[in-house]
Write the structure tokens for this entry.
Amino acid sequence: MAARGALAAVSRHLRQGLGGSFSTNSLQSSTIRNRGILLSTNIQWVQYSNLHIDVPKDLSKPAITISDEPDTLYKRLSILVKGHDKSVLNSYEYFAVLAAKELGISLKVHEPPKKTERFTLLKSVHIFKKHRVQYETRTLYRCLELERVTGCTADVYLEYIQRNLPEGVAMEVTKTRLEPLPEHVKKPIWKTVPEETEESKS
């Protein structure tokens, strides 16, 4: 009750102090019969104008930086993903392909052959040479190849898929970058070499 009285006093004070900044609609009262129970509701609509406490007034758009340096171009971006669980690799491959499709990147996926390693150990520590145990590790691979990607797109895509890399999965990235020809290669070599005179030939 005390909180309701304080709220009414504050709203009265705001109406008197701000004058025309409030517009109060008519008081609506209705009685609703719901499953044999009378419910009476009193709704009062108050419209606030020019009263924004939490929102700062001077909102400025963030500055966009434009650099004259050209973006890095990659001819090929090869991502090798390896793990021991086939279902985890399949789900991660689906996730990576879906992310590339959303960014509009052309992606090729192929599966290199799996690598199997066997270890033969003695069953006992020192004796019974014929009693041995074999352990086997199988490493499965998925290779994702992105072609003709800019540096910004490659950084965003790699960061996104690396953040969502599941446990027990390793990733190896190989980048093939396109670079302009150096100045000394652009000019023909025969123009830089001085011509031999006839005297030196004889």
